[in-house]
Write a structure and sequence with these properties.
The structure is a single chain. By secondary structure, this protein is α/β, with parallel strands linked by helices. The chain is 45% helix and 17% strand. It has an 8-stranded mixed beta sheet. Strands 14-15-16-17-18-19-20-21 form an 8-stranded parallel β-barrel, surrounded by 6 helices. β5, α5 and β6 form a beta-alpha-beta unit. α2 packs across α7. It is globular.
């Protein structure tokens, strides 16, 4: 597709805009990831089918736990991490694995979102597989596979193959780079990336990202031993104890932010404050609960009780986002200090830094007012201590339907809006992101829906809220910076919708940046 269009351009048979119109942006994924050797794939035995959650091809030994994935990787063994579903605690294993297979979850599940962000192949929601953690086995198509057995994943089709299937690396030809240059020439909208580490930021920048639209700070807490300090903070009985634990996290967060600012020198970096509910960070296995009890000087029963108390009936609608920051302002203080100090540090080293602090899950004006007060107060304290300042912005992620309805109020405080369409879709439809795959396939067959609303932005419902939020926000603040950072930011038709609304940018996973760049250019040339 790319070569034919560029050859025709060189021969003078089509013009540059026609080249862009002829691109099927979604297919560009195939130029960015390994693929299976076509001849080998024809004879490979398919043993399971799930959702094509993150493209590419992966082959390796089955492992079931993040710790095991790391151990196998240290021995230079390639592994496929097989889970019922993943959580932030599995991040270490996902990072070293070749691919991820889950029995549950949809296109915007934790496994899918993280895999796309780090460029890993992923098949999610393979509902027919039976995972037994205790026996370390997975049953597929009536056959039991043990830890160490080989399987292969096709993240572009959702197919799972038995055994090793050879892969080949893509050829990033000069024509591909030429198409990217054409996209930049005609686009009117920036493409940012969702990146949580300096590595992800560098990859995205290589693919042409002009900033970071979403940095999820919660993923940073699972690196190395820092989860211990995070858990110590969560189970602390009072504010002074929480502040002691937060003081341990401060330099770690500051270092992370410095690395990301340096990787995106000259570009905006949008950092989202802590978003998930706290129960996602506490240990759920007896051995790690015992370890935590010894670490903080509590009994095992006390730790188990605290972990139990943190569980929620509906955590996606529970004590998370700005609700955490307003309940425990010291958490927001620590993160704001880490961001501002990091910005000052890299600025002193000659890095041009543009920090944007994003408050998640705002639905009421007072929520962002309180958070902004904490952020501004903390920033002023740091400026007074250092005798230097740095410009920063405060905004919010519009992901609660009420926020779109009262966007004119929220814009009085927010310098920018970023539509988090994963949660906005979930709350608008009333569909659970993780459970919806159980019925969405049937809904498509019955004609109830045409596409998965978590994969393709729903124009009629969710799109109305996005358009309303944009218009209302700019009524209050005409120069309001508006973007989108949900997974729809890398889906071509959704990108075009955002361009037509006059958004400033879309933000997507690093490996989807080229797709979004072409889609944004197509929106401009199509008018």
């Amino acid at each position: 597709m790319v070569k034919i269009a560029m050859d025709l351009l060189k021969e003078g048979k089509i013009d540059e805009k026609t080249v862009l119109r002829r691109m099927e942006a979604e297919k560009l994924d195939e130029l960015l990831h390994p693929v299976f050797d076509p001849s080998a794939a024809k004879t490979a035995k398919v043993v399971a089918k799930g959702l094509p959650a993150s493209p590419g091809a992966a082959t390796g030994h089955i492992v079931f736990f993040a710790d095991d994935a790391e151990e196998w990787a240290k021995r230079n063994k390639k592994v496929i991490l097989v889970r019922l579903e993943t959580s932030p605690e599995d991040l270490r294993g996902m990072t070293v694995a070749q691919g991820i297979l889950t029995a549950r979850g949809g296109m915007t599940s934790h496994a899918a979102v993280v895999a796309r962000g780090i460029g890993k192949c992923c098949v999610s929601g393979a509902g027919d597989i039976l995972v037994d953690y205790r026996a370390k086995t997975v049953e597929m198509s009536g056959k039991v596979y043990k830890e160490g057995d080989y399987i292969s994943l096709n993240g572009s089709t959702g197919e799972v193959y038995e055994g090793l299937v050879p892969t080949v690396m893509p050829d990033m030809s000069g024509d591909f780079a030429a198409v990217m240059k054409l996209a930049d020439k005609y686009t009117k909208m920036d493409v940012y990336t969702n990146a949580d580490s300096p590595r992800d930021a560098r990859v995205a920048r290589k693919f042409g990202a002009h900033g970071i639209g979403l940095c999820r700070t919660e993923h940073m807490f699972f690196e190395g031993d820092r989860i211990k300090a995070m858990r110590e903070m969560i189970i602390a009985p009072d504010e002074p104890s929480r502040r002691i634990a937060l003081a341990k996290l401060l330099p770690l967060q500051r270092g992370d932010f410095e690395g990301i600012f340096e990787a995106m020198d000259g570009y905006e970096v949008t950092i989202r404050l802590l978003d998930p509910p706290l129960h996602e960070f506490v240990p759920h296995q007896l051995a790690t609960q015992k370890e935590l009890a010894e670490q903080v000087g509590m009994t095992l029963d006390e730790v188990k009780q605290i972990c139990s108390n943190l569980e929620e009936f509906n955590p996606m609608l529970g004590h998370r986002g700005c609700r955490l920051g307003n309940t425990y302002p010291e958490i927001t203080e620590m993160q704001a200090r880490a961001i501002i100090e990091a910005a000052l540090n890299v600025q002193e080293r000659g890095v041009t830094v543009h920090p944007k602090i994003m408050v998640p899950l705002v639905g009421v004006l007072k929520e962002i007012e309180l958070q902004a007060e904490i952020i501004n107060r903390t920033a002023q304290q740091v400026f007074a201590e250092r005798g230097k300042t740095v410009a920063y912005k405060i905004g919010t992620m519009i992901e609660v339907p009420r926020a779109a309805l009262v966007a004119d109020q929220i814009a009085k405080v927010a310098d920018f809006f970023s539509f988090g369409t994963n949660d906005l879709t979930q709350m608008t439809f009333g569909y659970s992101r993780d459970d919806a795959p159980k019925f969405l396939g049937f809904y498509k067959k019955l004609g109830i829906i045409k596409t998965d609303p978590f994969a393709v932005l729903d124009r009629e419902g969710v799109g109305q809220l996005v358009e309303m939020g944009t218009l209302k926000g700019r009524q209050t603040k005409p120069d309001l910076n508006v973007g989108i950072c949900g997974e729809h930011g890398g889906e071509p038709s959704s990108v075009k919708f955002c361009a037509r609304l006059g958004m400033n940018y879309v933000s997507c996973s690093p490996y989807r940046v080229p797709i979004a760049r072409v889609a944004a250019a197509q929106a401009a040339v199509e008018g």
